[in-house]
Amino acid sequence: MLFVKRLFSTFILTLPFLLGSLTAHAKMVDAKLPPAEFIQAVADQTLEVVKQDKAAQAGDRQAINRLVDQYVLPYVNFEKTTRLAAGRHWRQASPEQRQQLVDAFKNTLIRTYSGALANVDQLSAIKVGPFRGDPNAADVVVRSTISQSNGPDVGVDYRMENTPEGWKIYDLNVEGIWLIQNYRNQFSQVVTEKGVDGLIQTLNTQSMPAQNP
């Protein structure tokens, strides 16, 4: 259980590094930068701002939703994350159900991890490792190390796809555990028992923490 909570805390700690600047005059990061530069640029631009966002760090759901809607979505493909987590059950869903699944999964992630934003302190930092893949590939993984004052350094991998708009993050690996993989089994179990609408309802009414394999 302690390991799983640490996984959640580390995941939410990565969210600020996906955010655009909260100031009116700051520029959005160029999503067409080379993969490692893209992740590092977003981290460098936003970390200091997030450290000052007391409402989000205190777990204010409205503040967190605002940050995600305005600044995470441009860099993250939540639809692909949800589709891969739903697996074969995605094909059973209607277009309306698919959109409801995307919205519900985003909200359950925020609900599950919101308290861990307190882990972002003045000593939090991210260092992106050298990128050794093909920067023009359709799908890449960027590795990084997150340091915190209240725990050991943690390795986090970002899986991204190359789109016409630039890089989109759709999965995270924290200490060897991929986010999508860990939710897939739970999604499948709920759909088998309750159907797609049952999964949507479950996501909207309770948190679904990833399981430690």
Describe, in short, the structure shown.
By secondary structure, the chain is α+β, with helices and mostly antiparallel strands.
Report on this model:
This protein has helices at 2-14, 35-51, 54-57, 61-72, 78-86, 95-113, 179-205, and strands spanning 125-128, 139-148, 151-163, 166-174, 177-178. With 213 residues, it is of the alpha+beta class. It has a five-stranded antiparallel beta sheet with strand order 1-2-3-4-5. The N and C termini lie close together (12 Å).
Helices and strands, with pairings:
Elements lengths: L1 H13 L20 H17 L2 H4 L3 H12 L5 H9 L8 H19 L11 E4 L10 E10 L2 E13 L2 E9 L2 E2 H27 L8
Antiparallel strand pairs: 1-2, 2-3, 3-4, 4-5
Helix pairs in contact: 5-6, 5-7, 6-7
Percent helix, as a range, is 40-55%
| Nearest-integer average pLDDT | 79
DSSP summary, beta strand count: 5
Shape: globular
- Please identify the structural class as seen in this structure: alpha+beta
Number of separate helices = 7
The largest β sheet comes out as: 5 strands, antiparallel
The low-confidence parts are 1-9, 17-26
Order of helices and strands: HHHHHHEEEEEH
- What's the N-to-C terminus distance? 12 Å
Assembly state (oligomeric) = single chain
Strand portion, in percent? 15-25%
Question: Major sheet: order of its strands?
Answer: 1-2-3-4-5
What's the Cα radius of gyration? 17 Å
